[in-house]
Amino acid sequence: MPLTEADVQWVEEAKLGLWEQLYIPALVDGLKTTVGHIFKKKITEQYPEDEPKMPANYRGVHRLNRDEAGRVKCVACYMCATACPAHCIDIVAAPAPADWQKDGREKYPETFVIDELRCIYCGMCEEACPVDAIELTTLYDLTGLSREQMVFDKEKLLSVFDTTTKAGTDPVRTRSGKLGPASEAPPGA
Amino acid sequence: MPTVYVNDTPVEIGTKRLNCVQAAELAGQFVPHYCYHEALSVVASCRMCLVEVGDLKDGKVTMQPKVLPGCQTPVKDGTVIVTGEYAKRDPAVPALPYDPNYTKAAPPGERAKRAQADTLEGLLVNHPLDCPVCDKAGECKLQDFSYKYGRSESRMVDVKNTPPNKPQLSSTITLFTDRCIMCTRCVRFTREISGTAELQVVGRGHHEEIDVFPGRPLENKLAGNVVDLCPVGALGSKDFLYKQRVWYLKTVDGVCNRCSTGCSTYVDTNKDIVYRLRARHNPAAQGHFICDEGRYGYHHANAAERFVRPVAKVEGRFKPQPWSALLPQLKAELGAAVGANPKGVVAVLSPFLTSEEAFLLGTAFKALSADVRLALGPVPVVGTDDKYPKNVKGEPVEPVKFTIRAEKAPNRIGVEEVLKALQGELIPFASVAGESLSAMWFAGGYPEPSHLDALIPAGWKAPALLIAQDLLPTAMTASAKYVLPATTGFEKEGTFVNHSGYKQPLPRAARPPVETRGELQLAHDLLGRTGLVQPASVTKELAAAVPYFA
Fold first, then answer.
1. Is domain A62-179 given the CATH code 3.30.70.3270 in the classification?
2. Could you tell me the CA-to-CA distances from B74 to B9, B13, B66 in Å, in that order?
3. Distance CA B336, CA A185 (A)
4. Is the per-residue pLDDT at A2 higher than 90?
């Protein structure tokens, strides 16, 4: 619908008086804000000299959790790969090694590869995982020299677990393999 | 006409002898069931098909006071079936005059619904609920029915039974004992269809388990069917174990290409790789089941040694050739051979080709010269027809319920009919193999190379120009001048004619490797036609040219 004359409201520019025309009050007003910040608490982070502490629910690089015995916790159910909207997770499943089967582990991921460049860090994989095996960590400064370097395999993802656990920057769902505050309590607990 | 009332909807059953599950299906009502299977005896052990049954007589409905297993309850004229889905019935259908004493305690359908929910809770008492690692997840009847008819929460507080898995059950099948719901379909299958009776139930109550006798594993040629029959993830095929999650698979109706029975199958593929074959119910072809030869007979499609691009023999070694250069060369060399001596040129059409491929290839060669001969490729026959069920001595027992045929080719009759129509007579490969020929086009597609090698005469001398099209290296491709890649039975579209003359259409389940040109397309190109071949139009052409396919 085109605008008609009735829709338009004309506003006249405010007329400046002598006081305003001096511009000094406006100058002082602005300086007041600037000087005020000199005495306030500093919020600028000196990145990269100082590294920021990310909130525990930050969605950064993935990690694959380990169970108590140090084995990969993932059971290769493909739920994350199915939920992934970017199709960046590639799993090859296989029957678990014989000594794992004693603990009821029937299936494990032979390979588990995430293309970190294709990933959109939405956290759906974490959401879908029935065993809390995949998590997004607070590591945000993901760099590499080639595309191949940015394709993370199982060992690399497990090493992210080791690094983050050692650094005490576990994500919100679990803490070093134990359930964290954001996860549901097991029934009957 | 005898009439049965399913959720108030009258349905005429004619003279058929049906149970409540089948009668409900006629009326379009699905009654969930695990142990009941059309081809097996009824045991009514799972209690999932519980329905309310009554009788309509003199305008009055008398309902039985308790729910009955639908699979075991036959219907007759006036039988009233109320399923658990009664509340969702068609509201336009007038309700039957149920006895107020019956509806007072619970509305119709409520008893069945509650009974089914309780049954499911019972089945799940010892079920490990390990759906994430279970291969059946996604096509599991326990999942489906629990979702649709079950409770969302378990009241089970005790420790579940965890019997050990039995991977030693069979060389091809593994048993996840804890997932079993004891429907005994597998046990009945081995007793009634294969007759080999390896499986049995041991233990009692909640400690019942499927097992085999020590030293007598589940090894018969129909064993793979128990995996299809298993409604839960208890019996798993070792061939498919953990290969794919089922929701990634695309299912296409296929036809087995391993013997002349021409069993109907489901071909499960993902990204053009065949991962699994399953039996498809088709009474006109084979019934409910397929044999293990067919079930596991897809590995040739994914074999590493498969020909995936055309090659030509240059200085004794095969070198890859681009189609753009190869095709004119083939045409020129064939043309020269036909020009010199058309009688010395033979096109061999194997019984693994579809009728359409045989027709179009035959037409292409007859177009070169009417004197070019078309021969039927070697038809592999291994042993004799294997009939099931078998008795304890391994002898077949009447009535025969399944036959694995000795003729290991899916379309001998179809190719024969095409050849008869194109040249009036049928020339078997053996009769041309003894002649000294100038050129031969061998359209193979043998999934089992040893079958072909066994049928090539010992002293066979390859013609100077031998163009062999096949899947895997054989004696034929070894002596060929050109080897062209062939397509498998999963990668082509057409018609197979089985041993009894039953014509089965065959859709394409997977695309062939990129550099492979299908037989039909190649024939299309040889005929000088342009563009891509349309299989449907070739089928029409075939029907018009060959009366057998009309």
1. yes
2. 18, 12, 16
3. 81
4. no
The confidence score (pLDDT) of residue A183 equals 61
Architecture of domain B311-549: 3-Layer(aba) Sandwich (3.40)
User: What is the C-alpha to C-alpha distance for residues B373 and B395, in angstroms, rounded to an integer?
Assistant: 43
**What is the spatial distance between Cα A94 and Cα B166, in angstroms, rounded to a whole number?**
17
- How many of the other CB atoms lie within 10 Å of CB of B26? 17
On whether the CB atoms of residues B332 and B465 are closer than 8 A, the answer is no
Chain A contact residues (CB < 8 Å to B): 75-79, 82, 93-95, 101, 104, 106-107, 130-131, 188
Query: How close does chain B come to A38, measured CA to CA in Å?
Result: 57
Among candidates B132, B165, B248 on the partner chain, residue whose Cβ is nearest the Cβ of A77 = B132
Task: Give B212's strand partners.
Answer: B199
- Which residues, given as ranges, of chain B have pLDDT below 50? none
Q: B279: which 2 tokens?
A: 């039996």
Q: Can you give the pLDDT at residue B462?
A: 87
Residue with tokens 């060369």: B329
* Sequence-distant (≥ 6) Cβ neighbours of residue A186 within 8 angstroms: A179
Q: Are B150 and B125 in contact (CB under 8 A)?
A: no
B123-302: which CATH number, 3.30.70.1150, 3.30.70.20, 1.10.10.10, 3.90.1150.10? 3.30.70.20
- What is the structure's pLDDT at B431? 87
- A148: alpha, beta or left? (left if phi > 0; alpha if psi -120 to 50): alpha
- The total of other beta-carbon atoms located within 10 Å of residue A83's CB is 16
Helices vs strands, H then E, count in chain A: 6, 7
Q: Sort out which chain B residues have CB atoms less than 8 A from A82's CB and list them.
A: 245, 247-248
Where do runs of H (alpha helix) occur along B230-348?
292-295, 323-340
Per-domain boundaries in chain B = 3-112, 123-302, 311-549
Topology adopted by domain B3-112: Ubiquitin-like (UB roll) (3.10.20)
